[in-house]
Each structure stands twice: as C-alpha cells, then as structure tokens.
Amino acid sequence: MDDILDRFAQGELTREQARKALVSLGCAQVAVGRLDTGRLERTGQPEVVFCQGKTPDQVAIAMQGLYAHHGRALGTRADADQFAAVEALLPDCEYDPVSSVLRAGNTMETIDGKPAVAVISAGTADLPVAEEAARCAAFLGCRVERYHDCGVAGLHRLLDVRADLEQAGAVIAVAGMDGAMASVLGGLSAVPVVAVPTSVGYGAAFDGLAPLLSMLNACAPGVAVVNIDNGFGAAAFAARIVRGASRE
Amino acid sequence: MDDILDRFAQGELTREQARKALVSLGCAQVAVGRLDTGRLERTGQPEVVFCQGKTPDQVAIAMQGLYAHHGRALGTRADADQFAAVEALLPDCEYDPVSSVLRAGNTMETIDGKPAVAVISAGTADLPVAEEAARCAAFLGCRVERYHDCGVAGLHRLLDVRADLEQAGAVIAVAGMDGAMASVLGGLSAVPVVAVPTSVGYGAAFDGLAPLLSMLNACAPGVAVVNIDNGFGAAAFAARIVRGASRE
Amino acid sequence: MDDILDRFAQGELTREQARKALVSLGCAQVAVGRLDTGRLERTGQPEVVFCQGKTPDQVAIAMQGLYAHHGRALGTRADADQFAAVEALLPDCEYDPVSSVLRAGNTMETIDGKPAVAVISAGTADLPVAEEAARCAAFLGCRVERYHDCGVAGLHRLLDVRADLEQAGAVIAVAGMDGAMASVLGGLSAVPVVAVPTSVGYGAAFDGLAPLLSMLNACAPGVAVVNIDNGFGAAAFAARIVRGASRE
Amino acid sequence: MDDILDRFAQGELTREQARKALVSLGCAQVAVGRLDTGRLERTGQPEVVFCQGKTPDQVAIAMQGLYAHHGRALGTRADADQFAAVEALLPDCEYDPVSSVLRAGNTMETIDGKPAVAVISAGTADLPVAEEAARCAAFLGCRVERYHDCGVAGLHRLLDVRADLEQAGAVIAVAGMDGAMASVLGGLSAVPVVAVPTSVGYGAAFDGLAPLLSMLNACAPGVAVVNIDNGFGAAAFAARIVRGASRE
Amino acid sequence: MDDILDRFAQGELTREQARKALVSLGCAQVAVGRLDTGRLERTGQPEVVFCQGKTPDQVAIAMQGLYAHHGRALGTRADADQFAAVEALLPDCEYDPVSSVLRAGNTMETIDGKPAVAVISAGTADLPVAEEAARCAAFLGCRVERYHDCGVAGLHRLLDVRADLEQAGAVIAVAGMDGAMASVLGGLSAVPVVAVPTSVGYGAAFDGLAPLLSMLNACAPGVAVVNIDNGFGAAAFAARIVRGASRE
Amino acid sequence: MDDILDRFAQGELTREQARKALVSLGCAQVAVGRLDTGRLERTGQPEVVFCQGKTPDQVAIAMQGLYAHHGRALGTRADADQFAAVEALLPDCEYDPVSSVLRAGNTMETIDGKPAVAVISAGTADLPVAEEAARCAAFLGCRVERYHDCGVAGLHRLLDVRADLEQAGAVIAVAGMDGAMASVLGGLSAVPVVAVPTSVGYGAAFDGLAPLLSMLNACAPGVAVVNIDNGFGAAAFAARIVRGASRE
Amino acid sequence: MDDILDRFAQGELTREQARKALVSLGCAQVAVGRLDTGRLERTGQPEVVFCQGKTPDQVAIAMQGLYAHHGRALGTRADADQFAAVEALLPDCEYDPVSSVLRAGNTMETIDGKPAVAVISAGTADLPVAEEAARCAAFLGCRVERYHDCGVAGLHRLLDVRADLEQAGAVIAVAGMDGAMASVLGGLSAVPVVAVPTSVGYGAAFDGLAPLLSMLNACAPGVAVVNIDNGFGAAAFAARIVRGASRE
Amino acid sequence: MDDILDRFAQGELTREQARKALVSLGCAQVAVGRLDTGRLERTGQPEVVFCQGKTPDQVAIAMQGLYAHHGRALGTRADADQFAAVEALLPDCEYDPVSSVLRAGNTMETIDGKPAVAVISAGTADLPVAEEAARCAAFLGCRVERYHDCGVAGLHRLLDVRADLEQAGAVIAVAGMDGAMASVLGGLSAVPVVAVPTSVGYGAAFDGLAPLLSMLNACAPGVAVVNIDNGFGAAAFAARIVRGASRE
C-alpha cells in the first residue's frame, strides 16, 4: 500500500489508478464501500457518510467520492482524526466539534417560498444532537431556526417561542430524560413535530429509552419519532416535508 | 341517573341541565372528560375519541359533545357496544368493523391542490391498522390512496406501485414482523415515510417491538415512526404534512 | 367445613371457635393470612386488603378481622363477588365499581389544619386509578380534591388548576402514555408531586412502562413515583406527607 | 471565533470579554443555556446545574449566572475540571469528591420548627449517592441526619436507628442490589420513605434496575421512588415535604 | 382409538399391547412422551409430570406409566379435567386445588435423622406456590414445615419464626413484589435459603421479574433462586440438600 | 355481498366474476391479499398461508387461490373454523389439530437421493411446533423423520438417536425452557442444526425468550435459529438445505 | 489524616481513638462502613468485603477490621491497588489475580466427614468466576475440587467427570453463553447443582442474561441459580449445604 | 512461581520448559483449557479458539495445541498482542486486523463439486463481521464469494448481485440497523440465507437487538439467524450446509 501511495505521489499513477490499485488490494485492507450516487435522483438527497466506526481513510475516500459526484459531501458523527483525513483530500472541508458534523462544499440551494425547519431542544446537553439536526437540515437546503434550552421544567421558555414555531414547516424537537417536550408541542401547534429522543440522562433513562417511549406515546397527535440521538434522520425527514411545502 | 334521563326525556330538564346533573353525580359514576374543543383552532385538527377502555356511555357522551361543537366526531378502537351507544345519540354515525373506526358527520373538507396520503401495508393482517390510518386521514380532509399486501417478501409488489407513491404528499407504511418495508420505501422515493409498526407476528416479534426497532433503525433516511398499531397517529401526522404541502 | 359452618349457624360454636376450627383445617383450604393489626400503631395507617388474586372468602375474613380490630377496613382491586362475600359479614360495606375500592366503616378522622391531597389525572381512562387514590386518601383521613382530564395535550386545562394545586399538601398526578403531566407539574409548583403511571395506552406504552420511565426521568425536580396503577400506594404516601404538614 | 481568540491571546480582550464575545456568537459554538431564574419563586428551590456531559466552561458560566441571581449555586455530578473552571470565577466554591457536588455560596436558611431529613444508606458503595442527597438537602435548607451502612443483611443496624428515623420529616433510603431496605423501612415507621435505587451491584442488578423494581413493588406502603442514583431528586422531593411540615 | 380401548377392556389386548397400539396411532393423536423411568436411579427423584399444556389423556397416560414403574406419581400445575382423567385410571389419586398438585400413591419414605424443609411465604397470594413447594417436598420424602404470611411489611412475623427456621435443613422462601424476604432471611440464619419469586403483584412487578431480580441480588449471602412460581423446582432442590444432610 | 354470492350460486356470475366483484367491494370488507404466485419460481417453494389473525373467509379465498395456481396449498396456525371455511371450497383439504396445519392437495414430490429432515423435540409440550415443522417439511417435498421427547434432562434419549440424526440432511431441534438440546446436538454431529425455540415454559422463560437466547448463544457451532414457535420457518429453511444436498 | 496515623503509630492515640478520629473526618473522606462482626455467629460465615467500587483505603480498613475480629478476612473483586493497600496493613495477605480474590489469614477449619464442593466450569473464559467460587468455598472451610473446561460442546468431558461429581456435597456449575451445562448436570446426578451464569459471550448473551434465563429454566430439577458472575454467592450457598451434610 | 521465573531469567529453564512448569502449577495461575481434539471427527470441523477475554499466553497455547493435532488452527476476535504471542510459537501464523481472525497453517481442502458460500453485507461498518465469516468459511474448506455494501437503502445494489447469489450453496447475510437485507434476500432466491445481525448502529439498535429481532421475524421464509456479530457461527453453519451439498 505504501508502494502505491509512493508511486502516486511521484506521479507514476493517476489518482484514479491509485484508488483502483488500493481497492484491488481487497476490502479487508481498504474497504471502500459502493457509493450510492443515484440516491440524490431517487430521493432528492445525496448519500451522507455515517463516520462512526469507520477509519479516517474510509471516511476520506467516501467523502471524496461523493464530493466528486455531487460537488458537496456531508459526514456525521465524525471525530478530529477523520476530519484531518478528509481535510487532506478536500481542503474546503469544515468541521463542527459540537455536533461532530463534517461538511465539504456548500449546502444545497435553499428554495424560495419554502417554510423553515425549527430545531428546538430541551437542555444544554441536548445541544450536540440539536446541532446535528440543524446543520444537516441546512446542508439539505432548508432554512433553519434554532431554539435551545426550552425544556418543560421551565414551561414559559416553550410558551415564549410558540408563535415562532407555528411559522415553521416542520419542528424538530430534541429532548432526553422524560421527552415531555414533544407532547406539549404536539398539543400547541399545527406543525408536524419530528421528535428526537436523546441519550441525555442516566439510570432509568436507559440511554434514551425513556424519552423514546415517551415520545412514541405522546398524548397529543402530530408527533413522529426517529432513532435516539438521530439528529441527521430528523433533518432528512423534515427536509422531505419542507421540500413539498409552501410558505403560508 | 335513570331519573335524570327520564326527566330529560320528558322535557323537564334541558339537555344542558341534564348533562350537568349527570356530571354532578360525580366522576366516579359518569366520568365525562373535559372536551378539548379548542384543539381544532390550535392544531388544525379536532379532538378524536380513543374509545378503548371507556364505557359505551363515556364514548357516547364524548362523541356527542364533539359533534355538537364541530359538526363531526371521530372515534378509534371502538367496539360494537360503543357504536350502539353512540348511534342512539347520533343516528348518522357509521362504524367500520375492520378498522374499529366510528365516525359521525362528514369528513373535513379536502383542500384543492394538496397531494394525497398514500397508505401502503405489508400483509392482510396489517389491514385493520392500515384502514384506521386511511379512514382517519380521510376524516382529517386528506385524499387517501390504498396499496395493500405489498410486503417485501414479494418485492415486485412494492416496486410496482413505486411510481404512484412518488406522487403522494406523505406515505404511511404499515408493517409488522420485520418492518422492512419502511427501509425499502425510504430508499426508493423522496416522499416522507411515516412508518407504523404493527403487532402482527408472534414470538420474537414481541407484540410489535421487532418492527418498531427495525423502523427506528431504517438504514434509508426519510422515515419517522409512530407507536405500534397507531394508524390514527400516522394519519394525524400525515395530515399535518399535507396541509402545508402543495401538489407538485 | 360445612360441618363447622352448620354448627356455628346452630350456635354450637362461637364465631371465634368457628374461625379457629376453619383455620385448623389447614391453609390449603381456607388460607387466612396473619393480620398485621400492629401496623396502625407502627405506621399510622391500618393494613389494607389487596383483594386481587384472593378468593371471596379470603377477602371477607381478612376484612372482618381488620374491622373487628380497627372499626374500619379498606380493600382495593376488589370485584363484585368479593364485595358480596364481605357485605354478607359486614353490612355497612360499600363498593365503588369505578375504582374497585371496598370500604367498611367510616374513614379515619380528618385532622384540622392539615392541607388537602389533590388528585389530578390526565384522561378519562386514568379515572379508575385516580379514584383509587382519592378514596384511599380519604379513608386515611385526608381531605381530597379531584381534578380530572387535565392531560398536557390541552395544556390550558393544567394551567387552569395550577393555583388550586398550590394550596395542597401533596399532589397525586395520575397519567399513562407519555406521563408528561408529572414533569410539567413539577416545574410549576412547590408541592411534592407523587406520580402514578398508569397502564393506559397500547403498543410501546408496554403496559405502563413508558410513563413509568418518563416520570422517573422527570426533568423538573420534586417528583417521586409509585408502581404502575398503584393509586393506593400514592395515597398512603401522600397521607404520610400530609400527616406531618400544617396548612400554610 | 479565531479572531476573538487571537485578540484574547494578544491581550486586547480580557478573559471575561472574550468569553462574552464567544457567547454572543450563538449557542452552537459555546452553548450557554437559558437559566431558569424564576424557578425559585415558582417552586421554592433554585435551578441546580447537572454538570455531567457539560464542558467546564458551560458549567462555570451556568454556576456564575445562578450565583449572580440567587447568591448561591449548586452543581451535581461535577468532576475536578469543572470545579477548577467554576472556582476560577467563584472563589468561594467548594467541591466534595465523594458525592461530586459543587457548591458556591451558603446553603439556604434552615427554617425553625421543621423536622430533619434523614439519609440512610445500605452499604459503603452507596455512599456517593447518599452524600449527594445529604448535601443537596442541606443546600435546600434542610437539617440533615446521616445513617450509613444499614443494609438488611445485618438487620440489627437498621433496627438500631429506627427510633431516630421516626423523628424525621422524611427518610431518604439509598440502596442498590435488592433494594430491600425501602420495604423494611416502610413497614416500621410512619415517615414518608423516599427511595433511591443505586447502580451498585453487578450482573442481574442491571445497573440499578433490580433495586428500582424492588422499591417500586415495596410490599409496605409509604414508599415512593426516584430515578436510579438520583440523590439530588430525592433531596429536592424531601425538601418539599419538610418545607410544608412542622416538627411534632 | 375407542376400538383399541374396547379390545383392551375385553382382554383381547394386554395393557402393553394396548399402549403400543395407541402410540402407533401416531404422536399427533396421542402423544405419549418417553417416560424417563431411570431418573429415580440417576438423581434420587422420580420424574414428575408438568401438566400445564398437556391434554387430560396425555397427563393420565404419563401418570399411569410412572405409577406402574415407581408405585407413585406426582403431577404439578394440573387442573380439574386432568385430575378427572387421571382418577379414572388411578383411583387413589388426590388433587389439591390450591396448589394444583396431583398425587397418586404415597409420598416417598421420610428418612430418619434428616432435618425438615421449611416453607415460608410472604402473603396470602403466594400460597399456591408455597403449597406446591410443600407438597412436592413431602412427596420427595421430606418432613415439611409451613410458615405463611410472614412478609417483611410486618417484620415481627418473620422474626417470630426465626428460631424455628434455624432448625431446618433448607428454607424455601416464597415471595412476590419486592422479594425482600429472601435477603432478610439470608442475613438472619445459617440455613441455605432457596428463594422462589412469584408472579404476585402488578405493574412494575412485571409478572415476577421484580422479585426475581431482587432475590438474585440478595445483599445477604446464602440465597439461591429458582424460576418464577416454581415451587416444584425449589422442593426438588431442597430435597437434594436434605437428602445429604443430617439433623444437627 | 350476499347478493354477489347468490348470483354466483345461481350461475349468473362466474367464479372469477364473483371474486372480482367481492374484491371490488373494497378491502375493508373482504380483504383478499395479493397472492405471490411467483414465489415458487423464485424460491422453489410456494407461498404458504399464515392463518392466525385472518377471518375464515380470508383464509379460504387465499387457500383456494394458491390451490388453483399450484394444485396444492398449505396453511399454518389454522383453527377449526378456518378449516371448515376452506373445506367448503376445497373438499380434499386435511387438518391436523395438533399442529394446526391445513393442507389441500398432495405434498410436493420427494426428490430421490436427497437426505431426510430429522425433527427432534424435547418434551410433549413441544409437539405442536415439532409437528408443524414436520408437516411443512413434508409438504415441501422432504422425507421427514420424527424423534420426540428427547430433552437433555434424560440425556440417554438424545444419545440413543444420535446415529440416526447423523444420516439426515438437516436436523430441526425443537425445545423450550433452557433450549439446551440445540447446543448438545451441535457438538455431537456434523449436520446443520436448525433450532426452534418454543414458548413452552413459564416465569423466566418469558414466552420463549429463554430458549431463544440460549440457542443463539449455543456453545457448539453448527446451530442457526428461527423465530419462537416457528416450525414452518424451520421447515422452509431445512427444505432449502436438503434441496441442494445429496445423500452421502 | 497523615497526622492521625502518625500519632497512632507513635502511640499517642489508641487504635480506637485513631479510628474514631479518622471517621470523624467525615464520611466523605474516609467512609468506613459499620462492620457486621456478628454475622459469623448468626450465619456461620463472616462478612466478606466486596471490593469493587471501594477505594483502596476503604478496602484496607474493612479488611483490617474483620481480621482483627475474626483472625481472617476475605475480599472479592479486588484489584492490585486495593491489594497493595491491604498488604500494607496486613502483611500475610495474598492476592489471586485470576479470581481477584484477596485473603488475609488462614481459611476456616475444614470439618471432618463433610463432603467436598465441586466446582465445574464450561470454558477458559469462565475461569475467573470459577476460581472465585473455589477460593471462597475454601475460605469458608470447604474441601474444593475443580473441573475446568467441561462445556457441553464436547459432551464427553462432562460425562468423564460425572462419577466424581456424584461424591460431592454440592456442585457449583459455572457457564456463560447457553448455560446448558446446568441442565445436563441436573439430569445426571443427585447432588444439588448451584448454577452460576457468567457474562462470558457477546451479542445476544446480553452480559449473562442468556445463561441466567437458561439456568432458571433448566429442564432438569435440582438446579438453583445465583447472580451473574457471582462465584462468591455460589460458594457461600454451597458452604451452607455442606455444613449441614455428612459424607455418605 | 517466582522460583520458576527466576530460574528462567537465569537461563536454567528454556522458555518452553518455564511455560510447561507454570502450567503444571494448575489452572488458577495459567489456565490452559482442555482442547476438544475429537471435534473434527464428530462434527467435520476442528475446534476454533475464541480469543476475546483470554490472555495472549492462553491463546498461544491453545493455538499451538490445535495446530499440533490438526496441522492448522484458527482463532477469532484476536488482537495484536495475542497474534504476537501465537506468532512466537507458530511462525506461519497470519492475522487479519479487519476481521481479527488469526490463522496458522493452511485452510482445509476445498472439495470439488461443492457450491460456494456467498457473503453479502450491508454497509462498510459491517465489514469486520463479514470478513470473519468469509475467512472462517474459507478455513473450513469452502469457496467464498464476497459482496459488500449491498444494503437495501440502495436496492439496486442487491438486485444487481441476485443472479450470482443464486449459484451459491448458502448465503451469509450480514447487516446491522434494520436488518432488512435478510428478508429481501429470502424472498428473492431459493438458497438458504444465514443471517448475521451486527451491532452496527446506535440508540434503538440496542447493540444489535434491532436487526436480530428483525431477522428472526423475516417475512420471507428461508432465513435462519445466528448470534449478533457471530461471523464465525454463520460460517460454521454454512460450511455444514455446503459440505452436504452438490453444485447443481
């Protein structure tokens, strides 16, 4: 492998030849997945790299491949080493350590006349997930509004922003512990509430099981739920809603 | 209580007086909840009666109260006895035994220019939940399209309807067992997929836990989940999406 | 056994002799437990009969024994057959079919200057548990106030009664599904909130697991939790609080 | 942001100015939550900072904000780094490494005539949670008594302190493994028992699930439960009880 | 099948021929299992029929087969129909409806000099399981002593019998809900405590999971646990202990 | 619907016209699924009707449709009413009440030179699942051998049949409770062991969870697992194995 | 604290004064539990120190206290730092890194005429738990025999030692994964089998849940279960059995 | 033991002699398991070393023992330290860091005329498990084909390789998250699908529980499941299938 890289550095191999050579070493050494470059056409959203559990090289090659095809690429749950590997290939890559989101290239175009995605979170510890949702939604071409620290323990904070939320095309509600924010929101507004339970909490929170069950059983209609800590999933779902919506 | 009803029947008590008298017997005997008649204004959707676990009288009084206010009323998870009690008060009430949905009065107006809600289900045993979703969505003013028996065991059935689904404003995907339909749909289209796990199955399906977890972990973006067997919740959520959407 | 009963009926055996004779037949036939008549002195509250899973005879003998000792007796989760068996021995027994509570004799004395116990419930289906709490608290000498149908799906209903709750010595909050009412109450008032999750709901409510976990993870302080559907436990706990409290 | 840091490094900005400038960049970069300073008035207890999962800076800014408003501030689940960050801003801050509690300023006033909060724990490993409860109750203005190492494996230790506990306004019972201490206490005294299951144990203790379930099913009345390891929650609840109680 | 039975009744077929003919009808119709008649020799205890889920015929044939071999037979979790079918073949069969135990023939010989098995239970509802344990232990040749209604909610009841328990060779402790009795017993005596969690309780008892976990985590040594409601298993285990023990 | 049936009975409608008319009444009334008649070609096995949860009419129409296409049809988890409805349409239908299997037409051809499928079960209560496996495997063209009542509590029973099992192409091992049979078999032979956990047992068997987990963790290699009580699934899987195998 | 220790070393403080002074430093600093020195008299076995989660100082002081009283002390789940702290106070302390058992002083006397405790384990990874059981049993005065690597994947290994096991007074069976060894042993011998599930395995072993459930559902009688990885508990229980037993 | 080490340090003992001497001190110090060298004859597959949780020495000795007997040895879940220890004894040992598989000696002979084992995986993160399956199958004498990155989010990737899979003797399907790949494969082909759920994912994937349940509930027949992340188990099972199969 060093050999291939040396030859590529010395110009004996083109980038394409080098990559092929690397891949032909077998998946056990390099493990470049098959990129699903057709996903943008099928679903309106390009493939996004889930970085957790991948090596920096795997992340970098995947980001590069998507960037080459779409002119932009997004990675979630990235760490600093993965960022370094990507930045070496794609210098315009940016990394947000709070949300662990990695972005190369611009966000998708924001379409005029579409309502915003509102991201509302309960406590400071929910911020990484909320920011993942916000940054992914922005990447997917949504206008994003943020409302942090609005948990129901201080109900006035939620009631204060109620009118603002009502203008959104979709609300992403991020909360751990009791997950009660989703139910309260569902009963206060007509906007679809995409609930994201977080693993914030301890003990009988069981790593997010408590807010997950609470949100699935929201006593107010108008709430649907994504996986625990899945800010990206909420963003992708909300972007699908907003893409079909018009500002009222 | 018979006394109050007799006096009401003989005109000695107005309906209002009769109801108050009934209520004043104490909640332990009659248990009429406080109707949330302001919900329509707040959320765009009237309160719906969850009939399971209520007595026929409780259901009937709640349906009557909502009907009086909104000119229509919907009940879910109703049985034949509850239907009989409601029909006695509201003769234009209809009952669908497959979905256990009870409806008095017309559905809400369908707004022009809004895309349809597509309800797609995996197997025959998922039909009651799918029909609950379909009928509730219709009540809430959505155009509804039904695609039954499209489970991934015979993948062609799903691929056959793919183009139709793409025109919808939201897809409600109803499946038990492995819940795999939601993931496949999420990867094939750009429409938001509202997934409803059902309690269909046995053994390690654990009354719907298997498809619930599977859908929450859908490997394709664009999927959000409601409670097990919660056809109504999926409909209310989809109606919120469609209300803000325009047909493209 | 018939022999003993006949001889008792004919006066050959005193009631005491008859009971001893019955008991000496062996526990497999009669199974009268050892009554814990010292509990009143130790804990300020007499033993209460948990009727579920006992035969009508077992319930009747236990109620009679406690009544003989304390001049009053309470049974929870009783059914009509058990009531009939008790009523045959204790004619002043009353039965409430909503809460399944059985009471013989008067409630304990209400002590002057103690604040009330407020029982607040989320929906109509929570009523049986709420009434169990209310009736047990009353039996234990508390003044009781009831606030039904105050779930957070219509938040105004909860905010409406906020000032009233603040006067109570303890609030018993009864809710199923998302259990969000406990969190909201905890953040709005200074009164201890005793939360009772109920088995109301379906699917991922998992027979009360969802509100149980939600309430244990209440994001607002001031909430403690009893077992699912345990109205009696909440009442006994609240009565301990109020017994030590003075109205402010 | 680099700009701010450069100017701070060159002395153009004081640390305080730099931090403020960073905060004004918005929550996504620095994440200062909205403090709920009205909580003291609403609930009789000020907001307390849950430090786990927050950065030292986030903790320090939150503690400072609360201290500025209330003249005191409490943090739970803090580590040494967080303490260092707080101490830099609030020199009178104290840190207890056993309970991980951080306190700046004095405890609230102890009101005359109120009974004490008794904290009783089962084993040495339960000490951190018991101390969290004790220190938080003291901060909230309670007199606190401690009884450590009283698990039921040596029942005499519990019986020895029984008379002392009876004088308390509330007992906080801290135990892991079988959680049996709560049941035994509930049957021995008339004081409300606030049970705290701990994650002490291994295997089928399932990180506190075993004592949690055991305490929720206490066969003696008079027991209510808070989250696993939640010493603070027990203290806040007990303080609400004692605040309304008078010494008898 | 009637044909075979008629021919057997008329002596045309021996019992052996009849049984073989019945079996050869195929397992779907008769389903006589292979009796493990060597178990007595291997383990000191004969096979016992677990009746639940078997047809009356299956139970009767199995009991008859064991009776023919050993001169006695025991069945657990039997109902009245199964009893009737057995009684038709084995007229000296007895049935105890409290424990659902079926016994044909005498109990095994009690060996001199062996200590007793003490069965202690917490509440009236635990009686069926306790009696199953008691009757099975008696069948296996143990002297049995019973102590009912000794739950820790009234601790004196347990302390009262402590000296008696100390004389036993093994204590079978039967309790539901919090299962705390096992821990308390383990710390009070030197006798092995075989704990049987029961499904008595509701809500977060989760059908016996709460006492099962509590007993597995008993903070006092000397406790081992069998399956929920498994009175028979506790008896078989205790009988193995006592068989090797001598009265001290 | 009666109208359509009458007209069909009087010959005014062909069977095909009648069915179409019935279907056009809408799925809520009749609910005939889309039959996957191509499954035989794709997978070598025709679709099989899972009868549980379907109405007798739904079962009958599905069986008839498959029979019309393939000349045979199989239904699992059928009850007597469903059998009656099928028999009315397909007189050569047979029903086995032990396994609840319904079969119309002959089994598929047994291919020469293929090894048998051996079905081995642990106890009498496992028989229904074992028979479902055996009958489904026979329907799918396998030679089937049955070994009942071979649980490891009497290990000799398993060792006795070891040599026979070794000749099979696949072993289906059916056991509840501890599920230990699968592990023992995996270590004794070279044949693939398809393990079927059953819901036989009680308490901590948790409806089959115990043997499911045990079998998934079999310490001997060569074991794979299907769903709890899924005799059909094991048969379909074993038939795929045997179809590709040659007798050795 | 050093000051107190120095003064004690120089004789200015008695041991008692020193300990009191140490304790008066406050539980947060030293946290010496109340030793249960009466346990030996009550239960025949001295208290044993569970080291996990305690500081080296806490372990050392507890070991020293027990050693002072009994002339011996045992600690389980100790690490090297705790050993070092104990060794500094008690130079004759020994540490076994495989089982993490710490022992100071001799084992208890082995009583003549008592049968041995046999410890049998399934695989190499179960060795730490098996050794904890063996060493604890030896400390409690039992003769101990070890049989390692006897899992049912190679059944002959278990059958080979069967005759030896039959001579024991109790068998401690240590196994993870499927836990099948307990069931097989229960059916082969008349000796009580104390089963210890271990956390050996991965995935659906769920940290020992799989063998725990499997062992609780052992299809052979004569098996009781202790907590996952609880070698000490099994030893304490087996020692109670053997203490009452005579060699046959 | 110190003695042995000293003599080894001084050259009086070779490393080999030292290790043997250490082993002879007994299992508590070194813990060499009993190798099951008869397994190859019984099951057609030699014992394989599960390295996780073993010391490098334990792994090395076990690998050496098996190598000495069979001329080859395989280890799974090995790390670099274990590899180093093995390599010191067996220089022809190879280690694959992706799958953590260790192999000494050649793979078993591939038998002519047997179909291949196809390993198909969903995403890059599933690669380690897929490679474990592939390398173990190869070791056991199977021809292996690999198809990576074929998850259903991009369904075309799966459909593209469908024809290739149909030629295999068994398909090993490796997927985490929703596990939907197994169901889709089961409905598309006639080859037995051995499904391996992986722990890839987060939140409600619950470390592989979600795909495990999903695969156990596959709506398409022809799927059986092994433990989470158990690539080796799938390979051993598939090798048993292929060993009995002939290429068609």
UniProtKB/TrEMBL annotation, chains A, B, C, D, E, F, G, H:
GO terms for molecular function: hydrolase activity. One of its GO terms (biological process) is 'de novo' IMP biosynthetic process. Residues 115-247 form the PurE domain. InterPro entries: P2CMN_synthase_LarB, PurE_dom. It holds the Pfam family AIRC. This is Nickel pincer cofactor biosynthesis protein LarB. It comes from Pseudodesulfovibrio senegalensis. The lineage of its organism: Bacteria, Pseudomonadati, Thermodesulfobacteriota, Desulfovibrionia, Desulfovibrionales. The gene is larB.
